[in-house]
């Protein structure tokens, strides 16, 4: 008995013109992104076009293209261009138009600094949809690879050695040129060899200048901290009438250190330790996540590998979010963010900090878990109040939300969306791209929350 199959006919033309509206399910991420972009005020982008020459693609279409690309793991402008031909969802977003990769790359590079307003606008939209009401936020950082190799980094010590080597080669070439002036022909192109070394010497000199400037800035910060410590010791000694205890702080040493370095591809990136061991040329990407919705409510990028310096910037953003979103009441962080100054800074802004004081103990006994500590004494310091709160059952339960909120968000961004390396270079552009990444994540998450609320099957 023969088999009956559905005929495969790729030649018969459509009897009626096809409609893009029929190509995607009603609840599809691409449709939702188009809806979200239509909700945004795009006038700042539209007004930046001069209106001369050939017609440009609408910025709303290109913005939706980037949002959907980043939400689904397509970041390269060439791959985005190809997707407008290969993917029904991208065809829908671009209305069957095909912007080329140069147009996409130029749009991304040009408007990255303006994406912050859309990040906030989408948070407001989440509030209007009834999903986001600020309360508890988990803060964490993750190293994201720069668009540069760590092997393209030049240290101060190596720069000095290389500079001396090249100068010696230039002297040798000049001597060789003088000795061979009377010969009929040289064995190799001396002017080209000299020019190549002079070019490398100029590049090394520029790199040394950048390392020296960083060392100067570091020395200023270290000198200010040193003077503050000396003043504090002197004040304590004067108040007690006794010599200050402990070792006297050492003054900082000016100038570059042997291991100070600059990357020749992206000089604003830094060598940073990464989880699992080793080092990468990277940036430190920060995210504050709402524990109820897992939406990112604050984000920024820093060149500092240490998270202790990131609490103040995060607090500044959290306390200036639109009033309609409510007020942040609690901030959760791991031990990497802890310092007594950070605890006080959070409490001064009306936010309760719960920062791990060290590694959490595993397998506590039932008695330890059930024990409720005595209330802190009147006039207790900010650190003492937080320490007490962390020991209470309520405080432990609240802090326990940290691992199940912010860490999964970085997991989604890196392993589901596939964003592990920046496409652009320089801190300003990298910051803009991180805003693009977290905005795309938030739209994707908001789409999931809406589908869950409607109990429907989501696509995309």
Word description of this protein:
The chain is an alpha/beta fold. It has three domains: 20-114, no CATH class; 130-149 and 268-434, 2-Layer Sandwich (Nucleotidyltransferase, domain 5); 152-263, no CATH class. Helices cover 48% and strands 10% of the residues. The protein is built from 16 helices and eight strands. It has helices at residues 29-39, 43-46, 59-71, 77-86, 88-93, 101-111, 116-128, 156-179, 190-240, 311-318, 340-348, 366-370, 382-391, 393-399, 406-416, 427-454; strands at 136-145, 153-155, 261-263, 270-273, 279-290, 296-302, 330-333, 352-355. Strands 1, 4, 5, 6, 7 and 8 form a six-stranded mixed β-sheet that branches. Strands 2-3 form a two-stranded antiparallel sheet. Strand 7 (330-333), helix 11 (340-348) and strand 8 (352-355) form a beta-alpha-beta unit. Helix 3 (59-71) packs across helix 16 and helix 4 crosses helix 6 (101-111). The radius of gyration is 29 Å and the shape is flat. It starts with 28 loop residues before the first helix and ends in a 6-residue tail after the last helix.
